[in-house]
Design a protein that fits this description.
By secondary structure, this protein is of the alpha+beta class. Helices cover 51% and strands 20% of the residues. The strands form five sheets. Strands 1-7-6-3-4-5-2 form a seven-stranded mixed sheet, with no helix packed on it. Strands 10, 12, 13, 14, 17, 18 and 19 form a seven-stranded mixed sheet that branches.
């Protein structure tokens, strides 16, 4: 540098100046290189750190910012500082001399001294110019012997430069080898707060970040490799929170992980090579059905309004031909859904399989409301499967199936309850029973229907009739109604009837469905009397059995009575007493039952009206005795037996009780025998009275045959049998059959009259039997039958009328004998007050019975009138 003219200081020797200038240049070059290298190292290293971190994990924003700031700080902070220290801090010779003194202390101090000395101006007289020049020359000579380069600070520029170059090459290699990863790392390094995803060599195609899985169920997660992935690991791993790791092998470009069921939210961390993917998992219940409603439109013929049915189970039945619409309410809104195809439920025939057409379709969705239909119910039961997906992608409905049972409109059922299968009544009696009709869908109406099984010749015949008991409606599936039926209310006389309940539903052209038939024997008073006679016979027979049992009980009680007091109080004695008490109770119950049956028989006898008062009186006396026995005498015997077995009894008291029991039991047996005698006497009169009614009935039968033939004279008289009209011919055959029945009845009357005479010795009954025998009535009745077969109608009519007159004559003979016996019972002085009282009571009883029958028949007619639309019964 040329000297400054204004500067009065002295210049250093040129050699020394060259040495110092060379030293300064070397120092500056090194430190500039070092500062630049350090800045580059900071930047490149921070970039490479981000690149490296991204290969391991998703480097968070705060760490990327820290690394970036650190790298930039090294460039922006360290380099200026380094330049200031080594460049700006070592511009002057004195600064350089101080740096040289670190390596060469003596030389450095002298060099620093001459530099300072040379800096003083010449006007300073205290310093010798010559000495100063000599000193400078001396330092310059000594400096030439030294290499100032050795005084430079430790050389780092090469290492730092090499490091910068290596980092630069490494960074460049990143962009060359993995340009996508390099660019991605550069972007993430320069933009630490950006949401740029880190680049991985393993790439997934649309990997989900959040999924919803079924609550508590094992679930599968499938990850698909992207087409441009650089790495395809053979095995991938997934970990749900702190649970055991799950692995999955690669199949083509897929990884399928199976995780156990979860009940709480969590995160799955997947590891696929350098890829770390986090998946948020939210377990939720599958979408299910809260409520199911089916709207049923039944076939038009059923007249049933469209109805909604809330299903509590997935199984319901509808009639064949119904249209079904379904409404479902799910637990969550659905995004898609379908139903079907329908499947046949249970076993099916080949024809059903061939005719079955599966149905399927999509569900109409409105949030949580789902609907579909209509579907047609055929004649085959089918199952309706479902499948749907909710807003979270969960599949549901696989376990939800509706089973539709296509039921046929079965025929209704009809029953008659509260009555025997066979019933015998008088025409004016009323039968009370119930009809029960049921249908699976709806009853139109229910009622009863009757038809005749034939009448006696000459009696009015009916074709049948019906009574509508209750009108139904399409919603009524059951009709249970009481019914009162009286033959007299419908003009029905003695004959056999078939009574049936019927019901009708709405199925087209099905007609009526009937119950099992009830056979009703509408009896004439004569037939009714015979029926009562049979019942009376059974009562007497059972009364005899009760009397025998009571006698046996008396024998055992007398044996017990012979025991001494100590034996009576023993366990064996008490056991025998307890057994006797139980047997006495059972016998008393039998007597109560007989008394009730006797009372019913009395009511029937009062209703009949043809039973004479004397017979009724004896029946009443027998009934009263039986009731007294059951209500008073026999319970006293039972109580005394119980008292004798009391544990608190003394021996004397027990002995006294058994003696009283024996005494009272003897009185009971005497009263039983009295009741039995009264019943037997009444039965005899009853039997005698039946002969009158039986003969009158046979006479009526013969008159009926004659009346039938007379009515048909115009059609059959004088006509050959082969030419008679079929309807008339059928009636002749029926009349002939009735003649056989009448002949059989007369034969039994003859035999019964003989037996009655043998038992009672009554000569009047023997007389009638003999008259019948002498008249050869059996042969005569058979002759009438033969004439009917040959269509000798006129002769048959005359003979039938003749035999009817004879039968009536014989009945009058027996009737007169009965009246004579009844009159003779009063002692010849007129009826006693007791008889008059009984006659009055009997008339009152008959009036009451008549009133009851009248009210019952009125109830029947009111029932008949109840339904104004009910069809009337068919008239003959």
């Amino acid at each position: 540098m040329p000297p400054d003219p204004a500067d009065h200081s002295h210049q250093l020797p040129e050699s020394l100046q060259r040495q110092l200038l060379s030293f300064r240049r070397q120092l500056w070059r090194r430190k500039v290189i070092e500062s630049v290298a350090a800045g580059l190292i900071g930047l490149l290293l921070s970039f490479l750190l981000i690149f490296g971190f991204d290969r391991i994990w998703q480097t968070p924003s705060w760490l990327r910012l820290f690394v970036l700031v650190s790298g930039v700080s090294l460039m922006a902070g360290f380099a200026p500082y380094w330049m200031h220290r080594w460049i700006w801090g070592h511009r002057h010779d004195g600064q350089l001399a101080k740096l040289i003194s670190r390596k060469f202390p003596r030389l450095g101090d002298r060099l620093l001294g001459v530099i300072e000395l040379q800096g003083h101006p010449d006007q300073n007289e205290s310093v010798s110019i010559r000495l100063r020049e000599a000193a400078v020359e001396s330092v310059a000579v000594e400096a030439q012997k030294r290499e100032f380069g050795n005084a430079l600070p430790a050389a780092r520029h090469r290492k730092w430069g090499l490091a910068a170059v290596m980092l630069g090459l490494l960074s460049l290699g990143v962009f060359v080898v993995t340009p996508k990863a390099g660019v991605n790392a550069l972007q993430r390094w320069l933009q630490p707060f950006s949401d740029i995803e880190r680049y991985t060599f393993t790439q997934l195609e649309q990997a989900p970040k959040r999924i919803t899985v079924p609550y508590g169920e094992a679930f599968t997660v499938t990850l698909r490799l992207a087409k441009d992935t650089e790495q395809s690991p053979e095995t991938a791993f997934g970990t749900f929170e702190s649970q055991p790791e799950v692995s999955a092998n690669r199949r083509k470009n897929l990884y399928q992980f199976l995780f156990p069921g979860q009940q709480e939210d969590g995160v799955i961390t997947f590891e696929l090579g350098d890829l770390r993917h986090r998946l948020q998992v939210e377990p939720k219940q599958r979408p299910t059905v809260n409520r199911t409603t089916v709207i049923v439109k039944s076939p038009d013929y059923m007249q049933i309004l469209e109805r909604s049915v809330d299903l509590t189970i997935g199984d319901f039945s509808v009639v064949e031909g119904s249209e079904l619409r379904f409404e479902l309410e799910t637990t969550r809104p659905l995004v898609s859904g379908k139903f079907g195809p329908t499947e046949i439920s249970g076993e099916a025939s080949q024809l059903e399989l061939d005719n079955f057409n599966p149905v399927q379709g999509v569900l109409k969705l409105d949030g949580r409301q789902v609907s579909f239909g209509p579907l047609k119910a055929g004649n085959t039961a089918f199952t309706l499967p479902f499948s749907w997906k909710d807003e979270f992608g969960l599949i549901g409905g696989q376990d939800f199936k509706l089973r539709v049972n296509a039921a046929s409109d079965e025929a209704p059922a009809s029953y008659i309850q509260g009555i025997e299968r066979k019933k015998a009544i008088l025409p004016e009696e009323v039968m009370d029973f119930e009809i029960l009709c049921e249908d699976d869908f709806g009853l139109r109406q229910a009622g009863i229907e009757w038809s005749s099984m034939g009448t006696m010749p000459g009696q009015e015949n009916i074709e049948g009739g019906e009574l509508i008991v209750r009108k139904g409606d399409p919603q009524q599936q059951r009709i249970n109604e009481p019914v009162a039926f009286s033959p007299a209310a419908f003009g029905i006389g003695p004959q056999r009837l078939i009574l049936r309940a019927f019901s009708e539903d709405y199925f087209p052209d099905r007609g009526r469905i009937y119950s099992e038939p009830i056979m009703i024997y509408v009896l004439s008073r004569e037939e009714h009397a015979q029926l009562m006679k049979s019942s009376f016979d059974r009562i007497i027979s059972e009364l005899e059995d009760v009397a025998r049992k009571e006698l046996n009980l008396l024998d055992e009680n007398q044996r017990i009575e012979r025991l001494d007091a100590e034996e009576l109080q023993s366990e064996e004695g008490k056991t025998r007493l307890a057994e006797q008490q139980q047997s006495e109770r059972e016998n008393r119950q039998l007597m109560e039952e007989l008394a009730k049956r006797m009372e019913e028989l009395m009511k029937d006898a009062a209703r009949n009206g043809d039973i004479d008062s004397e017979t009724m009186k004896k029946m009443a006396e027998s009934m009263k005795s039986m009731k007294d026995l059951a209500d008073k005498e026999m319970p006293e015997v039972e109580d005394k037996l119980a008292e004798s077995a009391e544990p608190s009894n003394t021996q004397e008291k027990a002995k006294e009780d058994i003696e009283k029991a024996v005494t009272e039991q003897k009185e009971v047996i005497e009263k039983m025998n009295q009741a039995l005698d009264q019943a037997s006497d009444a039965n005899k009169r009853f039997e005698a009275g039946t002969f009158v009614s039986r003969l009158k009935k046979a006479a009526n039968d013969q008159n009926g045959i004659a009346a039938t033939l007379i009515a048909k004279f115009a059609e059959i008289l004088g006509v050959r049998t082969s030419e008679v009209d079929p309807a008339d011919q059928r009636e002749l055959v029926e009349t002939s059959e009735q003649q056989v029945f009448t002949a059989s009845d007369v034969r039994w009357i003859q035999e019964d009259l003989s037996h009655y005479h043998a038992r009672t010795g009554d000569q009047t009954f023997k007389q009638v039997a003999d008259l019948m025998q002498e008249a050869k009535i059996e042969v005569g009745l058979e002759d009438v039958r033969l004439k009917l077969g040959k269509n000798h109608s006129y002769k048959a009519t005359e003979e039938a009328k003749e035999w009817a007159n004879k039968l009536t004559e014989w009945a009058k003979i027996l009737e007169g004998e009965l009246e004579k016996n009844s009159a003779g019972g009063g002692g010849g002085g007129g009826p006693s007050p007791e008889d008059e009282d009984f006659e009055f009571m009997l008339r009152v009883m008959k009036l009451i019975q008549t009133e009851q029958d009248l009210r019952a028949r009125t109830r029947v007619l009111e029932q008949f009138k109840r339904d104004t639309n009910a069809p009337t019964q068919t008239k003959p």
